[in-house]
Amino acid sequence: MFDLTGKVAVITGSSRGIGRATAEALAAHGANVVISSRKQDACDRVAEEINSKPGGRAIAMAANIASKPGLEGLVDAVRGVWGQIDIMVCNAASNPYFGPMSGITDDQFEKTLRNNILSNHWLIQLVAPEMIDRKDGSIIIISSIGGFRGSGTIGAYNLTKAADLQLARNLAVELGPHNVRVNCIAPGIIKTDFARAIWEDEVNLAKALHGTPLRRVGEPQDVAGAAVFLAAPAGRYVTGQTIIVDGGATITVGGI
User: Fold this and answer.
1) Which terminus of the chain is less hemmed in, N or C, by CB atoms within 10 Å?
2) Domain 8-251 classified CATH 3.90.550.10?
């Protein structure tokens, strides 16, 4: 049910954090994974570590998600090595601004929209045609529980993550007849560099965990397990859905 032997998976933003944990988990279940982020040397290090362990193989290909030609080059290069892409994990994202939306600049807003929504659209449109032809494929978008919540400090980021939820639903409708599945994962607070400002600060952390039943910050591996499920035969009848991985934070009143 979780065998991914021979499948090819591309994971953006996979040199660290959730992306890296997801790549490692997919490889451990047999997938050949593509490590991609902006810096080639960081990608190389992760690929080398994965290749030192039993399981699937890894290659490293740097790409900037803000560049459509860069993403086209990434997809073409992967096909040149492994022939096809079976699993697309759109993980990379950015949040260049912290504060009320009244203070965000146009450049910051446009960067958030481009990196968190438009780049996912580009990647999916690049890989979907071959999945349609094969009548098989899994597309996974890493969203956030922020997509379900308003915020006075990360409103633009949350807006894009809410859009990702709808992007998955729309594409699930379009691609479902071709046996191509599209889903989201919405993590809560995960112990990554991206969320360091929250979990390193005791006051912020206490506020964040207030109302979280599991009473802890998530680990990247907690999200990776959901990705394996959605990529594998175990998730073959799941599409258009969002799996929330947040320790229960969204079922209570509290948190940030």
Assistant:
1) N
2) no
